[in-house]
Amino acid sequence: MPRYLGIDPGLSGALAIVETINGLPVLVDVIDMPSTGTGAKARVDIIAAASWIAKHAPSTAYVERAQAFPGQGASSGFSYGRSVGAIEAVVALCAIPMILVEASVWKRQLRLPGKDKEAARQRALQLFPSQHVLFARKRDHGRAEAALITVARLERAL
User: Is the pLDDT of residue 158 over 60?
Assistant: First the structure.
């Protein structure tokens, strides 16, 4: 059964593994973006990310396309870009085909308001009620978005 990797990039993002059973999405696992260091020295832990991805052996990765945010400072923009590049490199080195997904497209498809992170978390709780513990905290919106990016792409493919 093929598994799919969803990635909400950035240090506050997450990685999710989803598979389909009888055409329905099933969340296999989700983690916060592995990181090392703190503050300005925080980086994606590429070894931990690669290990987690390899353990699940996904057939395809769906990665939200990175873009600068309005009003984002140069330092935070650079940090975000660095994190995105690191996780995209990990996926490429794991030899997993990668598809970039526009945030506006997957959010519109799932009828989620643009920047409402809590709406994504609530939708994930609806779709995966048995996995409530994985989305229990307000800050689990990155986990929710990683899973929902994959769900939206799989629904589109069906």
Answer: no
